[in-house]
Design a protein that fits this description.
The complex is a heterodimer of chains A (134) and B (291). Chain A is mainly β. Chain A has one helix and ten strands; from the N terminus they run E-E-E-E-E-E-E-E-H-E-E. Chain A has a single domain (2-133), classed as OB fold (Dihydrolipoamide Acetyltransferase, E2P), CATH 2.40.50.100. Chain A has one helix spanning 106-111, and strands at residues 2-14, 17-24, 28-34, 49-54, 60-62, 73-84, 88-95, 98-105, 119-124, 130-133. Chain A is elongated, with a radius of gyration of 15 Å. The two termini of chain A are 16 Å apart. Chain B has two domains: 2-222, Rossmann fold (3-Layer(aba) Sandwich); 231-280, OB fold (Dihydrolipoamide Acetyltransferase, E2P) (Beta Barrel). In chain B, strand 12 (231-243) and strand 13 (246-253) form a beta hairpin. Chain B starts with a strand and ends in an 11-residue tail after the last strand. Classes of the chains: A mainly beta (134), B alpha/beta (291). The A-B interface holds A 1, 32-36, 41, 43, 53, 56-57, 83-90, 101, 103, 127-128, 130-133 and B 225-230, 244-246, 261, 263, 265-266, 279, 281-284.
Chain lengths: 134, 291
């Protein structure tokens, strides 16, 4: 799983659900939606340090930052490593939030012509991000 | 239900210590006692079995008093229906497996229990062998069966599996669990193995310096990393297979088998039989009614 540590900058709550915004290294902003509120989870406090967790298989890779797309979490970086399998490939991208690992189809790697050294964008839906207390 | 409210002064390695227990255990529960050496874990089991007398307090099992220092009630070990299993098998070397079990029968007790237990722990082919021809795991199965001959209501396990290797230990854990459930025992297990506690115990009691410092489910006590995922289960790793650039990890969660895709860094240090946490978000699973 990808694990990025950051500080909570905003918590929007409606009923039992909250959207938590976190900055990682003060550069990258990530959001997570959770069935928690500051009253059910005391670690949900603006300024608190927490970890954002998401599965490699849930990461979407793109090459252009200007997509009109609903994905809330976009992290730009440089591809550092590609390991191609028959069906799936593992991509390691270096970003200002740290290393992001993505598992995407080998077909998609070929179609996008992803190569080591290229600039790329890793994206993940906010409902795929878990929060963990440090 | 076992109700314990007792005090006992113990002479521990680092001086005197007061064991002060106030605890209730429901019938049919499997409770693990976890804590550092010298915390009073073995003394607790000895007090339950009647091998050690408390200084004060009461001990009752299903509303029958076993110990009450004010009323001067103190049942002898043989009057308490308790099975006790230690790390040391303590089998009689000159007797066969069957004779070892038969020796534990009480006067006029029906011998049919012997066959039932021999089948339960799969000792049929070994029943006429002497202990010195058996492996450690086999000896511990004999000792487990012997602890059950008198049909106890309570089974006390004092680190019974800690000397066995991982694979045998896992097998013995399965025997303990099926025996615990079949005979609806109340079982109290001392263990240092967190994986074992996750697999076996309904509840954990953390004992430190003679006092209960914490109690809860194994997940509450040991999984201190609070992940927000609402779809969380602990299970046992059954297999890890490499498939392309990922691994398929098969996990037994209660009696269901699930599969999780993982990549190399996630499963570093995983071994078959390890206890793991499987977590996902409440947003991911689909749900539908079974017709």
């Amino acid at each position: 799983m990808n694990k990025l540590q950051g500080q909570i900058i905003e918590i929007e709550t409606s009923g039992n659900i909250s959207i938590v915004s976190v900055t990682v290294n003060e550069k990258v902003k990530l959001k997570a939606i959770v069935i928690e509120t500051p009253s059910t989870a005391p670690y949900l406090k603006v300024g608190a340090t927490i970890a954002m967790l998401f599965k490699e298989t849930e990461v979407v890779m793109g090459t252009d930052a200007q997509h009109a797309i609903s994905l809330q979490n976009k992290i730009s970086g440089t591809i550092k490593h590609i390991e191609k399998g028959t069906l799936l490939s593992k991509i390691i991208m270096e970003s200002s939030a740290g290393e992001i690992i993505a598992l995407i189809s080998t077909n998609a790697v070929n179609q996008l012509h992803l190569k080591v050294g290229m600039n790329a964008m890793a994206m993940v839906k906010l409902n795929e991000v878990m929060i963990s207390e440090i | 239900m076992i109700k314990i409210d007792i005090q006992k002064k113990l002479h521990a390695a680092h001086g005197e210590m007061i064991l002060n227990l106030n605890l209730q255990i429901e019938q049919g529960e499997l409770v693990a006692i976890y804590g550092p050496s010298g915390a009073g874990k073995t003394s607790t089991l000895k007090i339950l079995s009647g091998l050690l007398n408390p200084d004060s307090g009461t001990l009752s099992v299903n509303n029958n008093l076993w110990f009450d220092n004010k009323q001067k009630i103190n049942l002898k070990p043989q009057q308490r229906k308790v099975g006790y299993l230690f790390q040391d098998y303590a089998l009689f070397p000159n007797m066969t497996v069957l004779q070892n079990l038969a020796f534990a029968l009480s006067k006029n007790q029906d011998r049919s229990i012997l066959n039932e237990l021999i089948e339960m722990v799969e000792l049929g082919e070994l029943q006429h062998r002497k202990p010195n021809t058996l492996s450690g795991g086999q000896k511990q199965r004999v000792a487990l069966a012997r602890a059950l001959v008198q049909r106890p209501q309570i089974l006390l396990l004092d680190e019974p599996l800690s000397a066995l290797d991982r694979k045998i230990r896992s097998k013995l854990q399965n025997y303990i669990l099926s025996i615990h459930r079949k005979y609806y025992l109340t079982t109290i297990l001392i263990s240092h193995d967190i994986g074992e506690i996750h697999k076996l115990a309904d509840k954990v009691i953390l004992l430190e310096d003679g006092k209960i410092s914490k109690q809860g489910t194994p997940t509450e006590i040991f999984i201190n990393q609070k992940v927000s995922g609402k779809f969380k289960f602990t299970g046992e790793v059954l297999s890890i297979e490499k498939e392309d650039v990922v691994y398929i990890v098969t996990v037994l969660i209660q009696n269901q088998i699930v599969k999780v895709i993982a990549q190399s860094t996630e499963i570093e240090g995983f071994q078959i039989g390890d206890q793991v946490m499987v977590a996902s978000k409440a947003f991911n699973p689909i749900i539908y009614k079974i017709d």
